[in-house]
Structure formats: C-alpha cells, structure tokens
Amino acid sequence: MGNQITTFYSGKHRSEYSDLIRYLPDNGSGRLILPNTKGETDRHHDRGFYICHASNNVSLNGSNCFIRGEFFLKAQGKPYFVTSNNNTQYGIKGQQGNLTYDFVSFPDIENISVIVNDMIRSNENYSIKTMKVIDRVYHKTILVNGSRLMLTVSVKAERDFGSYTIKLYNQFGSAAFTIDLRQFRAPQNLKAVALDTQIIVKWTGNHDIGLQETFFVEYRKHFESIWSRVSAEYKSTAILNGLQPGAVYFLRVFSKTTAGESSKSDVIIVKTALTYKQRSSRNQDIGTLSRRNDETIIIPAHYDEIDSMYYNPINATISHQASRNNVQDCTRQRLKVNLGDWEANNISSRNVHCAVHQFKPCQENTFLSSSSDE
C-alpha cells in the first residue's frame, strides 16, 4: 500500500467540565505548542484537557479513519480569584449577610487573612466549599473546578460598611481580592394613585448599584397582619387589582438582585375610592339627612295647674314682697297723717306713745291706737 501519510489536526483546549476554551494549531509534527499569554497563563496556568485528532487518510467504508488523543494538564501555581467575582456587594444595616469570594487553588490553601477597612481581623467567621465556579479564560466564559469562600458579616452600624479583603496563601504564593460592601437601600420616592378596585404604584430603583433589580410590591389592609406580594419584574411601576372599594391599604416596596435583597421601603397609606353606586347611595343619604335638619320639630307645651311658660317662683316671691312693701308704705303715710293731726290737736303734750298692734294688708280697715299722759 506504500507509505501512509499521517495528518494531524488542530487541537482543542477544554475545561475539566468539557467547556471549549480554545483551538491550538498543530505544526504537522503531532505536538501542541502552548503559547505563554500574559494575564492568562500566569493566572490559571493553562489547566485543563488537551485533545487532538490524527488520520492516515485511509478510507474505511467510504469515510476517513481518525484517532483521538487526550491529555489532562494538572497545572499548579499560586491561587487566583475568578473573573465572575463582584467587587461591589451590598448589605442591609441591622442584618447579617455573606460576602462571596470564588477562587481556584492547586494545591490547596494553607492560610487566609481577612482585612476590614485596612485592619487585619483574626476572629472573622468564614466557610469554604468546593464547587463549580464561573471564570473567563481566553475570552470564553466557562465552568472551572474551584471553591467558594463565604465571609459572614454582621452590619450593626455605618462603620461596618467598607472594604473587605481576603488574602489566600498556598505553597506557590498568594492572591488577594477586595469587596466594597455598600448599603443596599430600599427603592425610593414611593407614590400611589388609588381608584375604586385598583392602586397604581410607582417608585425609583437603585440605579447606582449596577445590578439588575427585580421589584416586589407588598400590600395589606390596615387591620390585617399578613402582607400580599406582587412581582413587578424589572419595571418601576405596578398595578394592584381586585381591591376593596373605600378601604385603607398599607403599601411598601423592596427589590432583589444577585447581590441579595434590599430593605423594605417606608410604608405609605392609601385609601381606595368608592364605586359609582356607593357614591350615589352616600349622596342620597346626605341629602335625606340635610332635609331632616331643615325641618322644625314643634313639641306641644304641657301645662299643669300653673302655666310653666310664665310661672317663675322667683318672680312670685318678688311680687309678693313688692305688694307687702306697698302696703307698709301706705300704712306709714296714714300713720304720718294721723300723727300730724294728733299733734295739731295736742300741742302741749310732751310724751307720745304710738304702737301698731297689728297690721293686715288684706283688710280694708286699719286701726291705730294711741294714749298719752298729760
């Protein structure tokens, strides 16, 4: 059959989970040459599977015959943090949260340092688990065999926000990654417009966080304790349907991102409008009440032996006293006149004894008795 020529085809570089990373040319000798690329090779060390194909161009049943070769490069080096890490993460004041750091290290990590706002912490709580992590290698987004470190952070005050740096060490060297922990604020400028069975809600999201937010509106009647929830997806407005007309509702909004869940917004109070039928019935009731108020209610006067509209015991007392005074004045006048007459007739008298024995104003005749001693 003569000399057979073997043809080598370009090789493939794949991850441990078979994600295609790149193609590698073959110079015809059956060897794959790995170029040293700054920022790539020195970071992940070209770890992965390398696959090549060769053929002797002999047709078998009308098709070429290929053979396949595969090799796994167990490259080792200093640890590195994958490109999918978020260097800005968010927390809520008064709550506990976790900061996540994804990394790859072959061999295993020997030591870890935690630096918070430029100060080394020795008592921080963290955990590590092996898992698939996302990395970008040679411009391809792939899954690699890595680990996730979760640092538990208790945000008690404003000073607990800031920079959190994790530094990893293995026998080849070290690597560090810093996360800026910021406060994840609730959506702002919450407003609402109420109809009879609907409430239209609008708000402003956290545009500065650089993450896609999914918004949720929670509402309940003022006397209820359980909140109902409606998803607004990525929009900054929502319509609540099927509400009770003329009822008072409490509303609030929060959002979720890949970094976590925001705090709840301040609660606003909204009252739904009445339906047309309810308004008509209410206006009719108001009109009826107004007509009733315009009517004059006359209660017949009740009389006993004395006309209560004119009888006043104080007036009666005053009238009786006035009558008595009038009679006494009349008596004094008559007494004065009689004494005058008596003095005119008895000029020589020195001692005069005058006594009013009894005075009855109701009698027509008044008696006056007097005596004198010469």
UniProtKB/TrEMBL annotation:
A Pfam family this chain is assigned to: fn3
Instruction: Check the record and name the PROSITE patterns matching this protein.
Output: FN3 (PS50853)
Which SUPFAM superfamilies does this chain map to? Answer: Fibronectin type III
* Fibronectin type-III domain mapped to chain residues: 186-275
| Annotated protein name in UniProt | Fibronectin type-III domain-containing protein
